[in-house]
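Deliverable D2.4 — example input (structure tokens):
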């Protein structure tokens, strides 16, 4: 969840740094919204992924599959995009 919070902070940084939006509310809202969005997506996709992987003969159990899907794939990939988001936040005004 910390990786989602990390990306959410960088995503909201653009709105926070603009003079017309000099409020911390977008920063807080996005920092909370991104991890919740991933949890909602996970709740929808995890059951089918687990069943299909079990039918395919995967030896991963429920908790291992969940950890692999949540941390390794989704949030690590999203957090790796945070520096790119920060670069465009600081280098453009539009």
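Example output (designed residues):
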């Amino acid at each position: 969840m910390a990786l989602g919070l990390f990306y959410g902070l960088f995503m909201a940084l653009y709105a926070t740094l603009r003079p017309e939006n000099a409020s911390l509310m977008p920063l807080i809202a996005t920092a909370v919204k991104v991890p919740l969005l991933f949890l909602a997506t996970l709740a929808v996709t995890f059951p089918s992924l687990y069943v299909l992987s079990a039918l395919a003969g995967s030896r991963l159990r429920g908790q291992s599959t969940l950890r692999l899907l949540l941390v390794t794939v989704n949030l690590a990939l999203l957090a790796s995009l945070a520096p790119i988001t920060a670069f465009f936040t600081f280098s453009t005004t539009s």
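The CA atoms of residues 8 and 30 lie 5 Å apart.
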